[in-house]
Design brief:
Blueprint (H helix, E strand, L loop, with lengths): L1 H10 L2 H25 L1
C-alpha cells in the first residue's frame, strides 16, 4: 500500500492527492465493513 501511494504523490498535484486520500480512506473503510460482514 505504501509504495503505490508514494508513486501517486510524485506526479499528482497536492489538492488532488488530498482528495484521492479521502476517497481511498472511504473505500478502505467500506471494504473493512464488508470484510467484517463476511467474516
Amino acid at each position: 500500500c505504501g509504495a503505490p501511494k508514494r508513486r501517486f504523490k510524485s506526479y499528482q498535484p497536492a489538492v488532488k492527492k488530498d482528495a484521492n486520500d479521502t476517497d481511498v480512506r472511504k473505500a478502505r473503510k467500506a471494504q473493512m465493513k464488508r470484510d467484517e460482514t463476511i467474516g
